[in-house]
Write a structure and sequence with these properties.
The complex is a heterotrimer of chains A (219), B (234) and C (287). Chain A is mostly helical and 219 residues long. Chain A is 77% helix and 2% strand. Among the domains of chain A are: 67 residues, no CATH class; 64 residues, no CATH class. In chain A, helix 5 packs across helix 7. By secondary structure, chain C is an alpha/beta fold. Chain C has two domains: 66 residues, no CATH class; 220 residues, Rossmann fold (3-Layer(aba) Sandwich). Helices cover 52% and strands 13% of the residues of chain C. Chain C contains twelve helices and six strands. A six-stranded parallel beta sheet of chain C has the order 3-2-1-4-5-6, sandwiched between helices. The chains are: A mainly alpha (219), B mainly alpha (234), C alpha/beta (287). Chains A and B meet through helix 1, helix 2, helix 3, helix 4 and helix 5 of A and helix 1, helix 2, helix 3, helix 4 and helix 5 of B.
């Protein structure tokens, strides 16, 4: 029961997913629409709530057991609860009953998004530019002719992607485009075909019940 | 220089420098910014999920059905699973979603497999024809060299035809290089060596584009600092 | 020359060099003309061929604030193109973190156009010329569901308006009325549209992607499954340039502004790789 019921439900859902492409019958289409547009949407919402619950539990445990960096867990929990109250009771743009404005100073969830989330998130990703420069200096060694080929292609593409390349020689962007449209396409197409066929094999194993790792361990 | 007086711009700049301080070394300011980001990002997602999914799709139809049944009596339309305005049956996906929380109850933890199985089963089933029709077959078709590749009328030309042959050789070489079920000896060895050339050029191109991507993100942040905060860039 | 010291230089010196390579061109901008890649021109031509009386342009995004500097200029350039051509534009977000960015882009470009409008017909009116449908998870739901009926998936738009009350939604029902879906992505949204929507409903798909995933989409451009692509910030700058030159649009071109700094940073990376290799081989020869 604990193994068979989820497996049967998974296979039935998979069957409807497969037939969605091939069965134009109104009954099948209607059920597929219900499955996708109602059932899966609500289930995905609860999956998110589960993720949030896990996050909160983990940090509460960290504070209780004084784990590594436990003081920072307070930052996470306080900011999460404060922003959640503002968002849930104040609405997406501050249209609900919870006050999200003091004079001209607004602090609804959308303002918090633009003024805190964007600077934090964008800055975290932008740090990669610096680490990449450091890695390029320390690690990219032309030890073999294949590495020279890789670096050569990289240099041509890097120059071709900026206006300066066009200024140095008008042929650089053309060569860069050729690299992208011919050898890069060939390599990526071969890799993509291999990956896709591998994914399809795994999907078919899941659909036929051979692959059951998604059920997790234990009883 | 025209330094901004908007308090939120100052908040953004302070948070930006908190994160950039990691470039010097790990420090409490970076950790503060990191944890603040996770907390606020999750609260934002929860807000939207609640107001745009849970309320309109789950709670409102169920509550409306109860209210209408209380005032006008039970109707057959309230038991139509496809109805979106007033519907009792919408509680079923809600209950299935609640099974996710069963993972915290040891004896009932197996219930979490039900929503996972439904979601994954549908997605996997729908993906099989999608991947075949959307990726495998069209890409194979595009790799096959035909007369059209050489004819100007077909949008090609002699040079395009030659490049199409190069792509075909490259795809076959790449597939050969990653084929590990046979030892790379003889013809397979030369095919694999040809394939690795294409793979290296492809990875070099990817590196070049990755550099562009990362630098673009850094440019965005510096524009914010120099323009929106300091006002020294117009 | 002390090659050993050069190889083991503190990485914070390299960080500082990268920061200066970006800051100096921003402070002292140099405008350099740039060419247009084939894939960007193809996307522009495809959108230019849409008949605004019968079809709309759909912009579908799955980017987040983390890739905003690359993707947001793409969205704005597409909005300018649609508005300048008089083609109705529908937008939707596949991930919630990108939804407010779309709203900001719409507000910003509408203000640009309405500032110079001389009549009601000239103006960009929400509901008539542009609709922001909002966000519905998971991504497969809107991608497949819009083929059956856009109003079914989005009964209300992002701002809470009933979509069936909006003027342009009276005749836009599903993908048959969509000229092209341009997926602006930091992940793989164009491929999802190609695999799920294009195979079943035959809708044309274009891409606007971060430079990281652009090389993976070139095979799809080559096979014709993607009608065109904006690849990274350069692609966005090219598209901005095309729209500006063809329709004389006004408004800040954020991607174009960053090209000088992009050039300097690329040259720095190349110089660092070359110096690193020279130092490495010199050290090996010495030892």
């Amino acid at each position: 029961m604990k193994d068979k019921l989820p497996l049967i439900l998974m296979i039935v859902a998979g069957f409807f997913g497969l037939t969605d492409r091939f069965l134009p019958h109104p009954v099948a289409e209607g059920f597929n629409q219900y499955l996708r547009d109602t059932l899966l949407r609500i289930i995905s919402a609860f999956a998110l709530i589960l993720g949030l619950g896990n996050l909160i539990l983990r940090h509460v445990n960290k504070i209780q057991h004084k784990g590594d960096g436990w003081r920072h867990s307070y930052t996470l929990l306080i900011s999460f609860f404060a922003a959640s109250v503002i968002g849930l009771f104040g609405g997406v743009s501050g249209e609900l009953w919870f006050p999200t404005r003091i004079g001209n100073f607004q602090f609804d969830i959308t303002t918090i998004y633009f003024q805190m989330l964007i600077p934090l998130g964008a800055t975290m990703f932008s740090m990669l530019a610096f680490y990449m420069a450091s890695a390029a200096y320390r690690s990219f060694r032309a030890r073999s002719w294949l590495a020279v080929l890789l670096l050569g292609a990289a240099f041509v593409v890097m120059l071709g992607q900026v206006p300066l390349g066009h200024q140095i020689w008008s042929g650089i962007p053309e060569v860069s485009q050729w690299i992208m449209e011919v050898p890069n396409t060939a390599a990526k197409r071969g890799i993509e075909l291999g990956i896709t066929l591998g994914i399809l094999a795994t999907f078919l194993k899941i659909l036929t019940g051979i692959e059951r790792s998604w059920m997790g361990g234990g009883k | 220089m025209n330094v901004s007086t908007d308090p939120w711009v100052w908040v953004g700049v302070i948070l930006t420098f908190c994160i950039y301080s990691f470039l010097y070394r790990d420090n409490p300011f970076y950790k503060f910014g990191e944890h603040l980001f996770v907390g606020v990002a999750n609260a934002f997602t929860l807000t939207f999920m609640f107001h745009r999914i849970i309320m309109p799709i789950l709670v409102d139809p169920f509550v409306t059905a109860i209210r209408e049944s209380a005032t006008e009596g039970m109707q057959l339309s309230h038991w139509n699973p496809y109805a979106t305005d007033a519907n009792f049956l919408v509680i079923i996906p809600g209950l299935i979603g609640c099974f996710y929380f069963a993972r915290f109850i040891p004896n009932y933890a197996w219930l979490v497999r039900i929503p996972i199985g439904l979601f994954m089963g549908y997605y996997v089933g729908r993906s099989v024809p999608a991947y075949l029709e959307g990726s495998v077959f069209p890409q194979m078709r595009a790799t096959i060299v035909t007369q059209d590749a050489f004819s100007v009328a077909g949008g090609g030309g002699m040079l395009n035809g030659i490049f199409a042959i190069v792509i075909l050789i490259g795809v076959l070489g790449t597939l050969t290089y990653f084929f590990f079920s046979k030892e790379h000896k003889g013809v397979v060895k030369y095919g694999a060596q040809l394939g690795i050339i294409f793979v290296m050029v492809g990875f070099g191109a990817s590196f070049g584009f990755t550099v562009m991507a990362r630098v673009s993100l850094a440019i965005g942040r510096f524009v914010f600092i120099l323009r929106d905060w300091l006002g020294i860039v117009s | 020359m002390k090659w050993e010291r050069l190889i083991h230089i503190d990485r914070r010196v390299i960080f500082l060099m990268m920061a200066l390579a970006i800051i100096i061109p921003l402070l002292f901008p140099i405008h350099m003309p740039m060419g247009v890649q084939r894939v960007t021109q193809d996307l522009f031509d495809k959108i230019d061929s849409i008949d605004g009386e019968e079809q709309c342009l759909m912009i579908s995004t799955d980017y987040t604030p983390q890739t905003e500097p690359e993707n947001q200029p793409m969205t704005m350039a597409l909005l300018r193109h649609g508005f300048a051509r008089g083609v109705p534009v529908l937008l939707n977000a596949l991930y919630v973190e990108g939804a407010p960015l779309l709203a900001q882009a719409i507000d910003s470009v509408m203000v640009e156009f309405n500032r110079h409008a001389t009549s009601h017909a000239d103006s960009i009116i929400y509901g008539r010329d542009v609709v922001f449908l909002g966000w519905q998870p998971p991504p497969i739901v809107p991608i497949l569901g819009m083929g059956e009926g856009i109003g079914n998936i989005y009964p209300e738009d992002y701002y809470g308006n009933r979509t069936d009350s909006l003027e342009v939604m009276q005749w836009i029902e599903d993908y048959d009325e969509v000229g092209i879906v341009v997926a602006i992505t930091g992940l793989a949204a164009p491929l999802w549209y190609v695999q799920f929507a294009q195979t079943k409903y035959g809708v044309a798909v274009g891409a606007g992607c971060t430079a990281v995933c652009a090389p993976d989409f070139y095979p799809y451009c080559g096979s014709g499954q993607l009608s065109g692509m904006m690849a990274g910030m350069k692609g966005a700058a090219e598209y901005e340039e095309l729209v500006h030159k063809t329709y004389n649009t006004r408004g800040r071109r954020k991607a174009t502004e960053g090209m000088a700094a992009q050039s300097a940073a690329h040259i720095l990376i190349m110089v660092l790789v070359i110096i690193g290799n020279i130092a490495y081989f010199a050290t090996r020869r010495q030892s």
